[in-house]
């Protein structure tokens, strides 16, 4: 019979592998995921690995290119599919999980290493992000690599981890920008002041390490500014200052501000950490406030640093109204490390209920993925509508037309061929050109559009947001 720890390891492997299935069967959805997928698709198509393009001829200055690089490479290797688009995020999350396991292997017992990896992998935000086309898994990989490298360097000053600290910073700078330096450096700085551990800094090769980070990152930043002037001002000033101090920031070129009340980031923390955040809060209430058996004074130096790293993203974004729940992702790895060290010190604590908790989120998401695969039009995705057009495009010379703005998922699944046209322009075209057109119209405008058209038209397909009209222009027959 397998030992409990070995069984837990196989459960973890099954959970992580199952994400490959669920992320393969779910279409890319609007807005963010399909937008980033389309940016990476254009990069793969054009071969331009310097400037990510929001659309053909429109540069995307909102994020550095690391995630787009990896997705474009995946497209070239595996084709433009959901699997290829999401594989880099899965690999980035898997690497972060391995870092957690490796760190706990060094400082704790094997069962704690497996538990830490399992806790991180099965928090709802981690599990969702591990199969999503977003930049956050790469930011988290960078911040986690820097954090654990700092800890492992303190434990073994001459190890290669002292260099990986600076590589982690480079990953963060190339995936999300200077925010990575803030999320990594501030908890360490506070810890150094709190614990009076300034002497620990001597273990890191600051001059050569900073040079390494600069060599890995600055060439792209310089090339991006030279190719599309204005990038540095928009990205550094706009994305890293104005976005966070002004909840109604109007300078966003690619979307809209996510205006929320101050402090909502902590609600995001509670949701993002499910189900493990509730367990952590239960233990805090039980031991710190009821039994009064422990407290900050009983945490060792490493645990205090992990606590700071787990809380800092929430602290940093507390006064920001322009936030998303994904901003809590860098907090989850240190939280998983801390929980494994404190709550699961005893192997007997790995009970049947613990295994059930580990399986909860993956099972829910797998079931949801299977449901969505059966009913794809429940999502905000144009995959099925584009598929219908592709299956019937033999009778038209026209590209797929959207009378509303063209959703990113339509651009992605049509390989950039879907186009936007105003209704007035369509009416003019119908008066002059004899052809069949497929026009996607918002569901709430279908009746009005049909009544406006003076040529034969029928509704041939409908999804959650759009109806596809087959419009026949008969100019030469009139």
Itemize the secondary structure elements and their pairings.
Elements: H1 4-25, H2 32-46, E1 53-55, E2 58-59, H3 66-78, H4 82-107, H5 110-122, H6 124-129, H7 136-155, H8 161-175, H9 179-195, H10 206-227, H11 231-245, H12 264-272, H13 276-290, H14 301-317, H15 329-342, H16 352-374, H17 383-392, E3 401-402, H18 408-413, E4 419-420, H19 423-432, E5 436-442, H20 446-452, E6 457-462, E7 466-472
Parallel strand pairs: 3-4, 3-5
Antiparallel strand pairs: 1-2, 5-7, 6-7
Describe the structure in your own words.
The structure is a single chain. The chain has helices at 4-25, 32-46, 66-78, 82-107, 110-122, 124-129, 136-155, 161-175, 179-195, 206-227, 231-245, 264-272, 276-290, 301-317, 329-342, 352-374, 383-392, 408-413, 423-432, 446-452; strands at 53-55, 58-59, 401-402, 419-420, 436-442, 457-462, 466-472. The protein is of the alpha/beta class. It folds into two domains: 4-374, no CATH class; 383-477. Helix 18 (408-413) links the parallel strand 3 (401-402) and strand 4. Helix 8 (161-175) runs parallel beside helix 10. The chain starts with a helix and ends in a 6-residue tail after the last strand.
């Amino acid at each position: 019979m397998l030992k409990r720890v070995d069984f837990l390891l196989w459960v973890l492997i099954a959970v992580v592998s199952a994400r490959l299935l669920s992320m393969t069967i779910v279409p890319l959805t609007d807005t963010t995921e399909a937008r980033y997928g389309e940016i990476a698709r254009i990069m793969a198509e054009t071969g331009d690995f310097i400037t990510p393009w929001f659309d053909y001829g429109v540069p995307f200055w909102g994020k550095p290119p690391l995630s787009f690089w990896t997705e474009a490479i995946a497209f070239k290797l595996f084709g433009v599919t959901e699997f290829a688009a999401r594989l880099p995020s899965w690999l980035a999350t898997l690497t972060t999980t391995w870092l957690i396991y490796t760190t706990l292997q060094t400082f704790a017992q094997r069962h704690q290493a497996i538990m830490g990896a399992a806790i991180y992998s099965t928090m709802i935000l981690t599990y969702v992000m591990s199969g999503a086309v977003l930049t956050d898994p790469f930011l988290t990989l960078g911040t986690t690599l820097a954090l654990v490298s700092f800890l492992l360097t303190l434990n073994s000053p001459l190890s290669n981890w002292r260099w990986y600290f600076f590589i982690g910073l480079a990953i963060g700078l190339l995936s999300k920008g200077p925010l990575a330096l803030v999320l990594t450096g501030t908890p360490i700085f506070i810890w150094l002041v709190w614990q009076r551990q300034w002497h620990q800094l001597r273990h890191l090769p600051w001059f050569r390490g900073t040079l390494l980070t600069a060599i890995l990152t600055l060439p792209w930043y310089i090339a991006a500014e030279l190719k599309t002037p204005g990038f540095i001002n928009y990205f550094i000033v706009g994305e890293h200052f104005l976005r966070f101090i002004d909840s109604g920031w109007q300078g966003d070129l690619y979307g809209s501000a996510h205006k929320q009340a101050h402090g909502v980031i902590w609600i995001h923390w509670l949701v993002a950490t499910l189900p493990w955040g509730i367990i952590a809060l239960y233990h805090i209430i039980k031991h710190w406030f009821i039994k009064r058996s422990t407290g900050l004074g009983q945490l060792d130096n490493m645990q205090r640093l992990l606590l700071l790293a787990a809380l800092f993203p929430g602290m940093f974004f507390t006064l920001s109204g322009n936030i998303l729940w994904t901003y809590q992702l860098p907090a989850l790895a240190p939280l998983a490390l801390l929980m494994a060290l404190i709550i699961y010190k005893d192997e007997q604590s790995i009970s049947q209920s613990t295994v059930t908790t580990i399986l909860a989120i993956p099972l829910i998401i797998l079931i949801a993925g299977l449901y969505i695969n059966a009913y794809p039009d429940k999502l905000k995705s144009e995959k099925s509508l584009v598929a219908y057009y592709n299956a019937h495009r033999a009778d038209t010379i026209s590209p797929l037309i959207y009378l509303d703005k063209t959703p990113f998922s339509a651009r992605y699944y049509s390989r950039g061929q879907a186009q936007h046209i105003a209704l007035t322009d369509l009416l003019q075209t119908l008066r002059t050109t004899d052809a069949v057109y497929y026009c996607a119209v918002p569901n709430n405008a279908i009746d009005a559009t049909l009544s406006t058209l003076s040529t034969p038209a029928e509704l041939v397909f409908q999804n959650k947001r759009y109806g596809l009209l087959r419009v026949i222009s008969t100019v030469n027959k009139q």
